[in-house]
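forwarding from the other thread:

> can someone predict this with uridine-5'-diphosphate?

sure thing
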Amino acid sequence: SLPTIYFITPTYPRREQAAELTRLGQTLMHVPNLHWIVADDNQACNDMVTKLLKKFGIPFTHIASPMPEIYRKAETIPRGVANRRAALNWIRKNVKSGVFYFGDDDNTFDLELFDEIRDTKKVSMFPVGLIGDYAVSSPVLKEGKIIGFFDSWPSKRKFPVDMAGFAVNIELLLSHPNASMPYKAGYEEDQFLRSLGVTIGDIEPKGKSCTQILVWHTQTTKKPVPVLKFRTRPDNSLREL
Ligand code: UDP
Ligand code: MN
């Protein structure tokens, strides 16, 4: 039978959230044997989010895991780390086999991606579009094997890859009980993969030998919540605030 894909989505409250989750949920509706782990950067599970998730009819788990306050004040904030960590812990407690993947709520996924990553034996990697100045981040292959990486910001990383650029077999996670993601912006992927004991020879190229982009690091323009000057009365007249 098909291995289950555990799709881990960190999410947080802001005015774009419902739109992002609707678009993503309606992509995931097309994917068989998928379990959606929605990890809410929030004190408690947001009721609006739970209600939205029920609409899609796909199996999901909604967990709350707020970012510790100290990291919110950091110069570069490690976005989505506390909640991804909570999702990994949920997998450790509840799952024995399958594949997991980190799918942010604002990214764009080709349905072919799921066919590609589903049979990941240890760790698979593939190109991600719209990353950095070069607009693509990808493993580099020679004779079918990954020998290096192309990325706009190598920064001495062993694995200069984006969060959306790899999938992991759950048995590998279970065999590394101390594997974890650091609260260190820019180095989350590299240190997480190192903590799983990954070597470059282990990595399975996907996306038709890394020739295809099946996921894009899209970003939604954020409009800050404005300071409202008026409020509408029930009779539609305006009241100054
Ligand atoms: N995120 C979060 N808490 C935050 C900011 C972001 O959980 O305070 C989530 C967000 O919903 C997304 C992921 O972490 O799924 C990456 O954040 P974002 O898309 O803002 O980062 P970028 O892709 O721009 O680097
Ligand atoms: Mn993003």
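The two ends are 60 Å apart (CA to CA). thats all i got for now
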